[in-house]
Design brief:
Layout (H helix, E strand, L loop, with lengths): L7 H28 L14 H24 L9 H19 L2 H5 L6 H35 L14 H12 L1
Helix pairs in contact: 1-2, 2-3, 3-5
Amino acid sequence: MAQPYQPSLLRLLHGANALLLPLTWITGLAVYSIHDGRWGRLPFPRGLEWIDIHGTIGVLLWPLALLFTLYALTLGRSRLRQPANAMALAALLLAVGSGKLMREEWLEQGQLDHLVYGVHLLAWLLIAFAVLWHGLAVVQRGGWPLARSMASLRIRSGDGPMHWLAQVLRPWLAKR
């Protein structure tokens, strides 16, 4: 059986999101534990500026999530037919979008009743569920070879960085 191959642009965008997402999730857990904690707290050190760390990682995640979404809606459209992929992308967009609307002083001042904060908490939970579902679905669909193909450094001819623009434009140019 042939080894699965994932396009290099997909692997780059997916990998960058996969590196930042756990960091935002964990720092979000720290922010929640320190400033909210209505449903429990974990013992994160209080000397760090967790809100700033979380926000900084979120700022880095924002353009990557946007690029990944553009990829998913163009070249990756067929992959969005998988419910786990669509759910993971939707949860990412909900988390990033609601995070952009948050104000850090709300939590510092104990203002926990803002709708956007509630949406952001919901997105945080959805991200956890969606990433687990996404990982399980990948293994179920293609086994470990498919999962490993996302981390592969192998690049086929015609799939390097200098071909990415043509790949992204191909769906629009084909319609003309």
